[in-house]
Design brief:
By secondary structure, the protein is an alpha+beta fold. It has a domain of about 110 residues: Immunoglobulin-like (Sandwich), CATH 2.60.40. The chain contains two helices and ten strands; from the N terminus they run αββββαββββββ. Strand 5 and strand 6 form a beta hairpin. It is rod-shaped. The relative contact order is 0.20.
Length: about 160
């Protein structure tokens, strides 16, 4: 009768280790997918800032994160919207021509993932700004504050638009 031999202990150990590593990799990918579903984050990006001579300053902001975001305050040169809201009109919309919705800090400016909004900043007629001036060639710091507590600053130098001087 022929004698049967099994696989050697070394080969058996290599096979067990390979199977264990394959299962561990599969579990890691599965867990990463599950964690990704529950851990969204906001990430706003100021895409563009430009001015128009008699119209105002336009700020294009995009949500590049994985969860919805909301802009709850706009700072100009360190002053919160609540401090200059009587002098400056802030409106927003999907593009420059539709930036007509008045900014309300209580409601915020909503941004879904991948969505962008254009924010228009313009002085109200007949107003002289007391907190800051908007003049061509003078830096203006615009900072967007989100409901998530993050700040997104951008320094901009107007070339055409001025008010308050």
């Amino acid at each position: 009768m022929p004698r049967r031999k099994g696989i050697s202990p070394v080969i058996a150990t290599v096979i067990i280790v390979a199977v264990t590593i394959a299962v561990a990799i599969a579990v890691a990918f599965w867990m990463t997918g599950i964690i990704g579903l529950f851990t969204g984050f906001e990430q706003l990006q100021i895409v563009n800032v430009y001015d128009k001579q008699s119209d105002g300053i336009y700020v294009t902001v995009k949500n590049t994160g994985t969860s919805a975001a909301s802009i709850t305050d706009i700072y100009i040169n360190g002053y919160s919207y609540t401090q200059y809201s009587n002098d400056v009109a802030v409106t927003y919309g999907k593009d420059a021509s539709s930036a007509t919705t008045t900014f309300d800090p209580n409601a915020g400016i909503p941004l879904k993932p991948g969505e962008q909004q254009v924010i228009k900043i313009a002085c109200k007629a007949g107003v002289t700004l007391s907190l800051f001036k908007i003049e061509p060639g003078v830096s203006l710091e615009i900072k967007l504050h989100s409901a998530g507590g993050k700040d997104y600053p951008k320094v901009f130098v107007p070339q055409l638009y001025s008010c308050g001087s």
